[in-house]
Amino acid sequence: MRVVIAGAGSVGRSIARELLASDHEVMLVDKQPSAMRVASVADAEWLLADACELSTLSQARVDECDVIVAATGDDKVNLVVSLLAKTEYGVPRTVARVNNPKNEWMFDEGWGVDVAVSTPRIMTAMVEEAVAVGDLVKIFSFHQSGADILELTLPEGSELEGTRVGDVTWPPDTVLAAIVRSGRPLAPSPDDTLEVGDELLIVAGSDADLDALHGLLVARPAAR
Q: DSSP state, 59?
């Protein structure tokens, strides 16, 4: 896969290193000479130029890439790069960094953004997840489909404790995607049982009944 990353700051370089470790082809683009730390990601291609310019995107061969990542510290730049990549070059997938959560509403298909990543929102979700066992926490939203990735840590006393995944009737438009147990991610099979402390990652559609989902996961057995 070929990926062009606009923004060669610490975020862009970190993404590049991860992609290169997975054998992807990466180009980093930045207009600041101080960002050209080529030795820090020596296996990537580097381009000193303004990613908001069509000539730069053409030079970066954006029309040949599978994904463009707009990872600069300027939301306006990230929106422009995403829009140009999608409308002028037909890039299949655009991922944009949201620096200011107040701007998150703009990062949608109207601006050519397929996936918006808000670091403050993710960090907030992680804090909530750390202290809120039994609460549904929104980890990530897919702007194109409206689906969300939700997390809930199964609380002690849940009616689902010891229940086979295959025996759970999940609310419509919800799917159990993964179980994280003792720090290890598991792909749930029908025969796996749910245990207290399991971190459940659930994909919920835009029409999912989150109250019903929460009630299912935290409900306690009826007293006899």
A: H
